[in-house]
């Protein structure tokens, strides 16, 4: 039985806290028949903290930007103008033939979507074991982080929060934190590594690639 593709919603520019509340409300209210949704949004500057985040990773300068405690996994990250943010309201029980899509497979598919979109712009991204997100795999910025992800997976298999890809940003706020808990980790955007692309184009490309990846059956990871 084919998997129904997620509905893509464009939220435009929106503050983080009401969007976070809307994600939770959507997930609270959804039923077995509620279509999955991807929300595309661009946030004003904000730091967000994962459930187990250490506030010690907020460094000098970080007090100039609002900081919001969330219920996703991971440490501290930054969202701001010029960044693609896509939230994934998915029911993992319906995304694997014969059973649920495991969270590890879900993360793998999200990361693959980012890698594929970067490749379409002639950029090489890679995974790093034990450090969710996508990193530059070559060139002068090898090892720098270009995309982050943080998810909440409820016990019933429903997810929210999602992924961010840096396109054309003021990168200074990343230097005021230890991104995702890693001291000294360099963060880049697509512009820094030589690609000028309209934000709307990258938003749509990543949303389309996520839909594609999440419709493809994948064998269990061992």
Condensed summary:
With 222 residues, this protein is α+β, with helices and mostly antiparallel strands.
Descriptive report:
- The chain is an alpha+beta fold.
- It has a single domain (7-215), classed as Bira Bifunctional Protein, Domain 2 (BirA Bifunctional Protein, domain 2, 2-Layer Sandwich), CATH 3.30.930.10.
- It has a seven-stranded mixed β-sheet. A three-stranded mixed β-sheet has the order 4-3-5, with no helix packed on it.
- Strand 9 (145-153) and strand 10 (159-166) form a beta hairpin.
- The protein starts with 6 loop residues before the first strand and ends in a 7-residue tail after the last helix.
- It has helices spanning 16-29, 103-120, 199-215, and strands spanning 7-13, 37-42, 46-49, 67-69, 76-79, 83-89, 125-128, 131-136, 145-153, 159-166.
Low-confidence stretches: none
Whole-Å distance between the termini? 25 Å
Q: What does the largest sheet look like?
A: 7 strands, mixed
- The CATH architecture can be given as 2-Layer Sandwich
Global morphology: globular
- Overall pLDDT: 91
Question: What's the level 1 CATH class?
Answer: Alpha Beta
Rounded to the nearest angstrom, the radius of gyration is 17 Å
Number of strands: 10
């Amino acid at each position: 039985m084919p998997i129904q593709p997620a509905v893509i919603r464009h939220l435009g520019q929106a503050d983080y806290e009401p969007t976070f509340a809307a994600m939770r409300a959507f997930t609270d209210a959804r039923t077995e028949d509620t279509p999955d949704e991807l929300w595309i949004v661009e946030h004003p500057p904000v730091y967000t903290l994962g459930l187990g985040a250490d506030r010690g990773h907020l460094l000098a300068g970080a007090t100039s930007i609002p900081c919001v405690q969330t219920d996703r996994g991971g440490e501290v990250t930054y969202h701001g103008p010029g960044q693609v943010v896509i939230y994934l309201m998915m029911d993992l029980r319906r995304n694997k033939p014969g059973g649920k899509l495991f969270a590890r497979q879900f993360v793998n598919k999200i990361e693959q979507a980012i890698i594929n979109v970067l490749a379409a712009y002639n950029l090489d991204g890679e995974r790093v074991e034990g450090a969710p997100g996508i990193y530059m795999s070559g060139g002068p910025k090898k090892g720098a982080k270009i995309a982050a992800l943080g998810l909440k997976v409820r016990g019933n298999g429903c997810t929210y929060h999602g992924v961010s890809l840096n396109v054309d940003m003021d990168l200074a706020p990343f230097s005021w934190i230890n991104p995702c808990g890693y001291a000294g980790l360099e963060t880049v955007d697509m512009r820094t590594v030589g690609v000028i692309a309209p934000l709307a184009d990258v938003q749509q490309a990543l949303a389309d690639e996520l839909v594609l990846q999440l419709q493809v059956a994948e064998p269990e990871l061992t």
